[in-house]
Amino acid sequence: PDATKTTQRLASDSQSGHSARVNEGMDRAVVVRYAALIESFLGAQRTAEEFVADFLDEWKRDRDSGILTGEALDSLMTGVDCYSDTMIDAWTIDEDQLRREATDALNAISA
Q: What share of the chain is helix, strand, coil (3-state, %, to 5)?
């Protein structure tokens, strides 16, 4: 999906009174927040390094607060944790793979 349209649709659904809970118990506001973060990376408003730092901050804050992030974002967290701008070993992923994982997560939380 078009990244910006995804966030706009999610925000619109939230304002129009559609179900407040989506995707594995995630609150719609959480989905909108993560969708915007992912879209800013996919749309090149954030570098991979900025996205990794921002995503880690958000995910850890939510984890520590007991906010459910769901399987798709938890999976993306693993990818974020494995990202390196220089391939170090078989466990690291590059920016292209991180973008694919971010796209997959966005598609999953936006479904």
A: 70, 5, 25
How far is Cα of residue 43 from the mean position of the Cα atoms in its chain?
13
What Cα–Cα distance (Å) separates residue 12 from each residue in 32, 35, 70, 71?
10, 13, 21, 24
Single pTM value for the model: 0.78
Residues 47-91 pLDDT 10s: 999 999 999 999 999 999 999 889 999 999 999 999 998 877 888
CA 75 to mean position of chain CA atoms: 10
Three-state secondary-structure class, residue 83? strand
- CB count within 10 Å of CB 57 equals 11
Q: Which amino acid is at 16?
A: S
Contacts of residue 52, defined as CB under 8 A and 6 or more positions apart, other chains included, come to 80, 83, 98
| Backbone phi, psi, residue 10, to 5° | -65, -45
DSSP 111: -
